[in-house]
Design brief:
264 residues; alpha/beta; 14% strand; globular
Length: 264
């Protein structure tokens, strides 16, 4: 059991499946209390019951549509009222729809901005005063390698993750001197249901099948760094190396990687 996590309350958004579900399990395994939020009440209830049965950790959950700012704001207020101080926040909720900009549906664009960016800002903005009041805590934002290297058909998704990384880096400099850790998690493709919405054709998922990350391993890595000072988690490491080369020579990389960039 991780003594840093034991007894701590950690709010996890997008907790009804994939990485979010495994994050909840690993927080509980280390003796922490995961507080779950997502749209599916049925899935959240099942996860909470499983965690309570296996680890004996009472697991509160909240049904909320994070794309609805007013609803999510009220839910955060309720969480703070019912649980007092929150020790950690993992902004995990995120969606994507891969399409050329000219062919994109505005509702899809708006929803990506609302879930990936606005709800993350909202959650952080409302919880940050509580963390600062106690002089400790950890905010982890699940970003993406797409926030470092944009590719065709992911203009909006990449833009949302650029925003998350920029927000995370600035926030870190603001609050680390006050005792709050801030970490961005920049991931390549992860084997979850994410791609069922992002690319219903299944072509992109099939093209990256061999390099997909295991969501359980991702969650384990994230929880292992909870309440420690860590600027970034980059997975896989070779993709992070590629993003560094890209930042130095973007034109060359775009030419060399054109085939790979157009797999969506």
């Amino acid at each position: 059991m991780n003594e840093r996590v034991k007894g701590k309350k950690v709010l996890i958004t997008g907790a009804s499946s994939g990485i979010g579900e495994f994050l909840a399990i690993h927080v509980a395994r280390e003796g922490g209390t995961p507080i779950l939020a997502a749209r599916s009440a049925h899935k959240l209830e099942i996860i909470a019951e499983k965690i309570e049965e296996v680890f004996g950790i009472q697991t509160p959950w909240y049904k909320a549509d994070l794309s609805n700012d007013a609803e999510w704001k009220d839910t955060i207020d309720r969480i703070c009222y019912e649980h007092g101080s929150i020790d950690g926040l993992i902004n995990n909720a995120g969606i994507a729809v891969f399409d050329n900009v000219v062919e994109s549906n505005w509702q899809d664009i708006d929803r990506m901005l609302s879930v990936n960016v606005k709800s993350l800002f909202r959650t952080t903005h409302q919880l940050l005063p509580h963390l600062l009041h106690h002089g400790e805590g950890h905010i982890i934002n699940i970003a993406s390698q797409a926030g470092k290297i944009a590719t065709p058909k992911s203009a909006v998704y990449s833009a949302t993750k650029h925003a998350v990384i920029g927000f995370t880096n600035a926030l870190r400099m603001e609050v680390e001197p006050k005792g709050i850790y801030v970490t961005s998690v920049n991931l390549g493709p992860v084997r979850t249901k994410f791609f069922q919405q992002a690319d219903p054709s299944g072509k992109y998922e099939k093209s990256v099948d061999k390099i997909m990350l295991d969501p359980n391993r991702v969650a384990r890595t994230v929880v292992d760094c909870l309440f420690t000072k860590q600027r970034e988690i980059n997975m896989p490491s070779w993709m992070d190396s590629g993003s560094k080369v890209y930042s130095l020579a973007p034109v060359t990389m775009e030419k060399l990687m054109q085939k790979q960039f157009n797999k969506k």
